[in-house]
């Protein structure tokens, strides 16, 4: 697979991207730098705080409601990640995962998926092994440059600032579901 930065006004590239996105049955997310802005806030009592964007959460819920599985694979452990995943209906959560490929293979086997049915969102060099495996590798706008080299799609939004929602909408549009979702809210 050749890796490139998509040029949004190039109809051929966008068409190819939508064909890939149409087949996605699983979106896997990193946490720090993807679902959050990457900041880790610790207080003197040992509490950890993370900042999640509500639109990312809504995008995840829409994917789950429309049959696209969502999973989390992250190198850190945080109770707040487990809580947020539960709120969003994400049952596949792998934390303190130093070799993300192992968790990836477990999820693929559990749901009988091929690489062509999986998208992965990352932001750093630890994400490169998964970015190289999946059909739709995504890097957030503020990802490390070396991670971006392996992305088919680079979001316009930064991590923790609506990047996940952007990808959720791309997948739902590619599957022809977005207009129906939107009409539920507009009443048309």
Give structural notes.
By secondary structure, this protein is of the alpha/beta class. The protein has a single domain (11-39, 47-186), classed as HAD superfamily/HAD-like (Rossmann fold, 3-Layer(aba) Sandwich), CATH 3.40.50. The protein is built from eight helices and eight strands, in the order αβββαβαβαβαβαβαα. Helix 5 (128-131) links the parallel strand 6 and strand 7 (136-139). Helix 1 (11-22) packs across helix 7 (163-174) and helix 2 (54-65) runs parallel beside helix 7.
Core attributes:
disordered N terminus; two-stranded antiparallel sheet; alpha/beta; 188 residues; 6-stranded parallel β-sheet; Rossmann fold
Order of helices and strands: HEEEHEHEHEHEHEHH
Shape: globular
Q: Roughly what percent helix?
A: 25-40%
Largest sheet: 6 strands, parallel
Q: Over the alpha carbons, how many angstroms does the gyration radius reach?
A: 16 Å
Say what the CATH topology is. Answer: Rossmann fold
Q: Supply the helix-strand structural class.
A: alpha/beta
Work out the number of β strands.
8
Assign the CATH architecture.
3-Layer(aba) Sandwich
Separation, N- and C-terminal Cα atoms: 41 Å
> Major sheet: order of its strands?
5-4-1-6-7-8
């Amino acid at each position: 697979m050749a890796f490139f930065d998509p040029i949004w006004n190039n109809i051929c590239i966008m068409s190819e991207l939508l064909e890939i996105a149409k087949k996605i049955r699983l979106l896997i997310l990193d946490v720090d730098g993807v679902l959050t802005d990457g900041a880790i806030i610790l207080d003197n009592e040992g509490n950890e705080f993370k900042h999640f964007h509500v639109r990312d959460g809504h995008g995840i819920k829409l994917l789950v409601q429309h049959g696209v599985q969502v999973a989390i694979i992250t190198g850190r452990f945080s109770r707040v990640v487990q809580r947020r995943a539960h709120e969003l209906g994400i049952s596949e959560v792998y934390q303190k995962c130093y070799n993300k490929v192992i968790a990836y293979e477990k999820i693929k086997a559990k749901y009988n998926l091929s690489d062509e049915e999986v998208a992965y969102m990352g932001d750093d060099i630890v994400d490169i092994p998964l970015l190289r495996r999946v059909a739709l590798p995504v890097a957030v706008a503020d990802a490390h440059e070396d991670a971006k080299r392996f992305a088919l799609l680079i979001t316009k939004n930064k991590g923790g600032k609506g990047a996940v929602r952007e990808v959720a909408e791309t997948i739902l549009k590619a599957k022809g579901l977005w207009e129906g979702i939107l009409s539920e809210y507009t009443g048309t």
